Amino acid sequence: MDTARYAALFQAEAREHLAELDATLLALEEAGRTAASPLDTSELVATLFRGMHTIKGMAGSMGYGTVERVAHALESRCEPVRRGDEAVHAELLALLFEGTDVLRAAIADVVCGGETAPAMVGSLLVRLRPPVSTPLASDTTKDALPVPGPAVDGAAAATIRHLDVHLVDDCPLKGVRAMLVLTKLGTLGQIRGTHPEQPRWQDETFDGRFRVVLASNVTDEALEQAVRAAGDVAQVYVRVPAGATQAVQQRVRAVAPATTRTVRIDPRRLDTLLDLAGELVITRDRLLRAIEALDHPDRDVLRAARDAARLVSTLQDEVLQARLLPVGQVFDRFPRLVRDVSHELGKEVAFTMEGRDIEIDRSLLEAIGDPLLHLLRNALDHGIEDAAGRVAVGKAARGELTLRAVRDRASVIIQVQDDGRGIDRHAVLERARAQGLVAAEVQQLDDDALLRIIAHPGFSTARRVTTLSGRGVGVDVVNTRVRALGGQLELETIEGTGTVVTLRLPVSLTITRALLVEVAGCTFALPAIHVSEATEYHESLRVHHTERPAVTIRDDLVPLVALDELFGLTRSSTLERHDDAAGDRHLAIVDAGGRRAALLVDTLVAQQDIVVKPLDVVHGAAPWFSGATVLGDGSPALIIDVPSVV
Fold first, then answer.
1. Is 248 a residue whose pLDDT tops 60?
2. Do 45 and 78 form a contact (C-beta atoms < 8 A)?
3. Are strands 542-543 and 595-601 parallel, antiparallel or unpaired?
4. Which of 96, 164, 356, 443 could hold 328 in an S-S bridge, CB 3.0 to 4.6 Å?
5. Which residues contact 518 (CB under 8 A, 6 or more apart)?
């Protein structure tokens, strides 16, 4: 078998199982802390066992010997716990965490064609040997799925079903897929046997057709759903074997459910689809503009063009939806990180994740991992105190760290919140003065000023550099990345109470709604997410006795920004006029991070969807623009980065 063809599929499947192993180990650790019931613990151990067994089988079918040996050693070490001969304890969990890390490294190495350090693997295998008082996992354990199903009793325990499964003809790694089916069924009952036997599933001659004999008390519908959930299943036949009683047959009637299938697709295809959808949006706008510019457009042509525009909009929405992924795919990396870092620092931390199902564009999802990593490490290192320090100030010994995602109109808000010591504004101010970042007469820092200082490259109040922090690059990296994504970073902190860092991001990077404005003959795009309203500008709105230009909007004083002045465009500034000749100009009221501003423009052109193109900014250039777009008439327009303007 040409394993190179299936290496990426193996790695993707293995990553999912590794994430499940990490989550299960963390749950076991928490269960030990909260004295969970033995039933809950046994279910977690069974989940752990299934994941290790599945990875072992997948690696065996691919010929990845090192991965198979490590997975089998982990599985064998868990066998005494699964049988009830050994209790879960801290030393065992630490060893299993380490083993999972080595397993992850071995998978990454073998997929890239490398080899994990033999000394590291050998040392781990020795330490993973079960205690002498408990027998090693037998060969039967290695080849069969040794996971009992949920406890059943009475007549339900005698309900035997035969499940005949046919995989799709083009299913890659049929043996691995069959093992995934077996794993799913193992959660619903007790596996009594398979035909052909499981070792034969790894043969080249295995055609993806097999039977599972299962003792279970669930319905046929639930069994079929479980089998199809493994993926690449063409047909499932569930039946009660001859000899079963009529009562059993009536109790477990077969039902053909409607099932949902998912497929794996190369992300580059989605990128191409989105680019094409974006070009269709531009072409749609050009077509409509050209037809509407005609003196007497043909009604049939106009109707057809509008129908085509509607279909293009629908296609665009579907492509965007296809690219959305739950933030949980990134969030799930962090419980293990928080656990390891808090142990390294000697701190007790309860980590909570909220809003894991909130969806965001795939490209954004890939980009926010590093910023969140920096924020979590900062919270653990700088924010949350150790147990003794917390108790001394009247807090619970265990700190609280929360990673949260929520939808807010057309944006996604991600927050990292801790109940630690907060940011010492006085210490930041003293260090900022020493580095010349603030004037000597500045006596107090609000949250905005505080964020600007700690996000300055190289700024840090740490007295020493550690593996976690101290070099002054964390918040700078976060701020730079978030701004590059068209988002903004916000900070709220109360000394002695805690800190909340907020990332406000667009749902999609590629297509967004924008207000087009004209300034000195040039067209610019304002992201609609920041625009709260638009109104005509009159000199009577202007307030002259303030330190900086401002206007009154419904009795609120709002700073005034003349974009022609800001961008250095050649025209006489309205700010220098004191007559009503500028009455034909407009104000776009924008909001960014709680800061409002009235942007003075010549004309409000239109509100429409735009396709965002990346902008290569010259080093040292003013950070006023976050991207560019092509308008319906083919002309380019710069997209204004509102947070940098206000």
1. no
2. yes
3. unpaired
4. 356
5. 524, 601, 602, 603, 605
Question: Quick count: other Cβ atoms within 10 Å of Cβ 583?
Answer: 12
Q: Model pTM? A: 0.65
Name the DSSP letter for residue 617.
P
Let me know: does 520 contact 571? Beta carbons within 8 Å: yes
Residues 6+ apart with CB under 8 A from 280: 312, 315, 316
Amino acid in the structure at residue 351: F
- Closest C-alpha to 600, from 546, 634, 553, 636: 553
What span, in angstroms and rounded, lies between the C-alpha atoms of 496 and 392? 12
Please state the three-class secondary structure of 80-138 as a single string: HHHHCCCCCCHHHHHHHHHHHHHHHHHHHHHHCCCCCCHHHHHHHHHHCCCCCCCCCCC
**Whole-angstrom Cα distance, residue 566 to residue 624?**
9
Q: Cβ atoms within 10 A of the Cβ of 571, count?
A: 12
Beta strands in 314-460 (DSSP E): 324-326, 349-354, 359-361, 399-408, 411-418
Q: Is there a contact between 592 and 530 (Cβ–Cβ < 8 Å)?
A: yes
DSSP bridge partners of 418: 401, 499
C-alpha closest to that of 521 among 570, 469, 560, 467? 570
pLDDT: which is higher, 2 or 403: 403
- Structure tokens belonging to residue 206: 């295995």
- The continuous run of DSSP H or E covering 503 comes out as strand 498-506
Strand partners, 542: 551
| CA atoms lying within 13 Å on the CB side of residue 193 | 5
Residue reference for tokens 């269960």: 31
Query: Rounded to the nearest 5°, which phi and psi values hold at 511?
Result: -125, 130
Q: Phi-psi category of 104—alpha, beta or left, where left has phi over 0 and alpha has psi -120 to 50?
A: alpha
Cβ atoms of 446 and 466 closer than 8 Å: no
User: CA nearest 303: which of 324, 282, 288?
Assistant: 288
Query: Distance between CA 46 and CA 565 in Å, rounded?
Result: 67
SS3 25: helix
Amino acid identity of residue 486, one-letter, is G
For the CA atoms of the chain, what is the radius of gyration? Answer: 31
CA pair distance 123, 475, nearest whole angstrom: 39
The identity of residue 233, as a single letter, is V
Residue 624's Cβ-count burial label (10 Å; 0-12, 13-18, 19+) is: middle
Give the separation between CA 365 and CA 270, rounded to whole angstroms.
Answer: 14
pLDDT digits (tens, 9 = 90+) for 154-175: 333 447 888 889 888 878 778 8
Residue, of 275 and 66, whose pLDDT is higher:
66
